[in-house]
Amino acid sequence: MQRLRxxxxxxxxxxxxxxxxxxVSKLIxxxxxxxxxxxxxxVPSMPGVYRYSADRLGEVAxxxxxxxxxxxxxxxxxxxxxxxxxxxxxxxxxVPRAIRFFKDHFRKTGKSFLxxxxxxxxxYTSHGHCxxxxxxxxxxxGSLPLHAKAALAAAEAGADMVAPSSMMDGxxxxxxxxxxxxxxxxxxxxxxxxxxxxxxxxxxxxxxDSAPKSGDRKSYQMDVRNAREAVRExxxxxxxxxxxxxxxxxxAFLDVVKTARERTLLPLAVYxxxxxxxxxxxxxxxxxxxxxxxVTEIMAAFFRAGADIVITYHALDFARWxxxxxxxx
Length: 329
Ligand code: PBG
What we know:
about 15% strand; alpha/beta; binds ligand PBG
């Protein structure tokens, strides 16, 4: 008789039957860097997530190296914001400074990991939009050279990867051409290809103080009702030269992840965004959910759906739990 329970009887059999594995070395940990000195402040809506000034990044570097995750993705919170988001492409801006700090720290400690830079204007513009505004509208093409400059500033500081996230049409191509023209033809691009206009970004906008001051992002981020269009976005980024494509957010879009997996041959990343993180943290704090089991289940879901890479604020905790589980056997 068929007995599907046979292979569930104990941990040894379950391990053999497991179809997927949540691999810590495939996780990327997002890090918020800000100006100033000696700052480590918790993001109120994201317990356990901090904003660091560059000089305090040593503890992050050590924790990330110890966890064995793939690396970090840097988000900058500048001291000043302006109309054109100039902090995003300042060679001495918060992100280039943080990249240099990490690289210097690696030389000293001999331990290193991937340092990726998110490339967008929204954390740097006074109006909070991801591109420049002209007559109250986001000027797509006029914003492309600014993204290209931001990518160059990150590349020159030593970033291992750049990740344009603004959903401007043509941004991947613009960044690729700028990098190639400046001697960075080997630097990979992770494209935020299918990024939806999502409510789940709320806590991030808190963290980066980047909520749009007027309107919303629906004219450039994707409509949450669409999946076929996500495939078109991915295909467009492939043609423009993306090396990794991404679906974001993750949890409410696993169908899109699965479809993307079937349609693209590129490595596929998912971004387990701030709101997804904060929901788990809040429920765990109330005692309504077991944080470790919940996060473990969520990570399994991402890999099962077909993700190769997971960007998650849970990365360090999850790595620690995985290590504890190995020790316990
Ligand atoms: C935009 C950007 C966003 C996030 C990262 N980069 C979203 C947005 O405000 O539109 C969200 C990440 C998260 O919620 O964790 N450049």
